[in-house]
Amino acid sequence: MRTQVAIVGGGPAGLLLSHLLHLQGVDSVVLERRSAEHVQQRVRAGVLEQGTVDLLTEAGVGERMRREGEVHNGVHVQFDEDRVHIPFKQLTGRAITVYGQQEVVKDLTERRLADGGRVLFEVDEVQVAGVDTDDPVVHYTHEGVSHELHADFVAGCDGFHGICRDAIPADVRTVYERVYPFGWLGILADVPPSSDELIYANNANGFALLSMRSATISRMYLQVAPEESLDRWPDERIWAELSTRLDAPGFTLQQGPIFDKSVTAMRSFVAEPLRYGRLFLAGDSAHIVPPTGAKGLNLAVSDVDRLAESIADYYRTGSETGIDTYSAACLERVWRVQHFSWWMTSMTHRFEGPDAAFDRRLQRSQFDYLGRSEASATTLAENYVGLPLR
Question: Catalytic annotation on 384?
């Protein structure tokens, strides 16, 4: 089989890239090792930047997002019992939309299949070869039969644990990484959100985040040890700790049945370059950010938007400028987002060790400055709603 672009990975990055290429007349095949049901049910990010919302809308896959997503014009930041509001719309003219990543995947999958796109799920034994030649090939097994997919380009959208990043030789690839000494215990609860906007809370017991997935489903997080056992966190303890960390005058945390729990370790990770020969990395295969800044999905969208335009321009005009500059252009945004995510994490989480008391006083100073300085609040708002994609 032959295609113009072989896309390894059928999550939001791979599916969106395939759709954007289709809109510009470029053929692609998507290979995903998981089942369609698994990909569409994975609970991941839920905050979409303004640029992401605009792109999905322009691409014709934003109708349900516009109908069911919740637009937020600000966010709350809390230190102990003190809370300040950061008015995104007022400071930047832009907003965010709360809409689960799994819902984005459902919308993209439905559209690709409706358009006759070739999306293969439950693909095994994927290997990428010849990416430094003019005829790269992806070997894979589907339904027990071995196949070869020849392409002009290969897009590695297969996530942090995927195989594409390792196709870049070790002597060419540079990895930058920071592993944080904590993780997030995340829950989904069948209860309406206790706030109309997200709350980031820095408490002496640790970080907490009140978020949501819909008008009836709450999504919340607690800072825990990176390898914390869920057995140590019965529902009663989770609600008690959330109540403590989110406590503020006039605030009441609504409680309800918890139907999902998970612990996610936190890291910052960047692999450079994002291009080697005919292979391009996009999304989590190239970079990971701590979830504090709500940037993972949005950064993947930025990657594939630029990649789709670069590849389409190559076929339209023969110009290789876009594909030649893809890595450097993406990395400029990647490092801006890495800094913001690190900054948000450093400001809101409890750090232990000999400097813990000093660090907490610095956090208090940063919080106070955020509350009284419009310039500081604007910096947070501008980065949170997201810089323009182009």
Answer: yes
